[in-house]
Amino acid sequence: xxxxxxxxxxxETSNDDIKSFxxxxxxxxxxxxxxxxxxxxxxxxxxxxxxVLVTSGGTTVPLEQRCVRYIDxxxxxxxxxxxxxxxxxxxxxxxxxxxxGTYQPFCRSLPNNPLLECFEVTSESNITARPLYxxxxxxxxxxxxxxASNGTLLKLPFTTIFEYLQNLQLISSxxxxxxxxxxxxxxxxxSDFYVPWESMxxxxxxxxSGPLDMRLAQVPKMLSVLRxxxxxxxxxxxxxxxxxMKILLEKAGTALxxxxxxxxxxxxxxxxxxxxxxxxxxxxxxxxxxxxxxDADVEEPLIKLIVDKHSAYLS
Length: 315
Ligand code: PMT
Known about the structure:
Elements: H1 15-24, H2 31-46, E1 51-56, E2 60-62, E3 70-72, H3 78-89, E4 93-99, E5 119-123, E6 126-129, H4 134-150, E7 153-158, H5 161-175, E8 182-186, E9 193-194, E10 217-218, H6 223-230, E11 235-242, H7 245-258, E12 263-268, E13 275-280, E14 283-288, H8 299-314
Parallel strand pairs: 1-4, 1-8, 4-7, 8-11, 11-12
Antiparallel strand pairs: 2-3, 5-6, 9-10, 12-13, 13-14
Helix pairs in contact: 2-5, 3-8
Bound molecules: ligand PMT.
Residues 5-6, 75-79, 186-190, 192, 219, 221-223, 238-241, 267, 272 line the site of ligand PMT.
């Protein structure tokens, strides 16, 4: 099931709504360990400069506490993974908050179904990449190793809306010490509706009980609290996804003002890999993929533009 990305998502979110969302969420597993990793990462990076949080993939909304069924939000994670790569190349340290099982930086070109197709056993003790995949595998391995040895990439997984928002709060609070060197790039597809934990069925819902009648609560929008309280000096970029071109730019413009974002990246579902429109207070900028290069993506010019704007913001 795919959740709507919400035409009615501009109502006010109060601090009480946010508090009650967090109070009623199941506690984040390993929160102390995540916090420790983040603090270590950010402390090291704060001497070097810019740190970006890239969120990627869709959040799920469980229907049962012992979850068998869930509502999902569409996102392959390709935008987030590609963007993380370009931020790393531009010298940023990247916190990559991603949906478990979605695309990863430097591994986008590898077939994930099945990954083993890339390799062959050449002798009893040797495994090599098949010629077709040799270049892609080499690049994926060396880029991943460079990021690992430089310690510039911290990956944190999530699945549910509860995990995503709790991680977002932890990361934002840790990054607030970086002031304007912190950049938020919120490309994850975040659920607008959810089942509050306390009113959720514990066990698998039985189909023998007849048709399912369920009321979903509204997920509080965290963008304004992120901007106002969690990381007030950071450079903040949110995304706006619509399927109807006619309302896309208007909704992105409203989000820019309402949540006081520095940029809103507007994209339409079917053309999102070809073109995005960056909505800013100074006007709209159309960013397109270079169609003369088969392997070009829209994230390359998009991240270049963002890096330039962030540098201007810093200076
Ligand atoms: O992963 P791909 O397949 O490459 O696709 C990329 C993408 C289309 C998912 C990506 O480019 C994108 O548009 N992501 C944002 C999708 C989304 O959730 O849009 P929205 O219009 O519902 O939300 C707008 C913003 O509000 C988002 O930045 C989101 O982080 C934020 N939000 C949403 C819901 C909510 N309850 N709280 C929020 O803060």
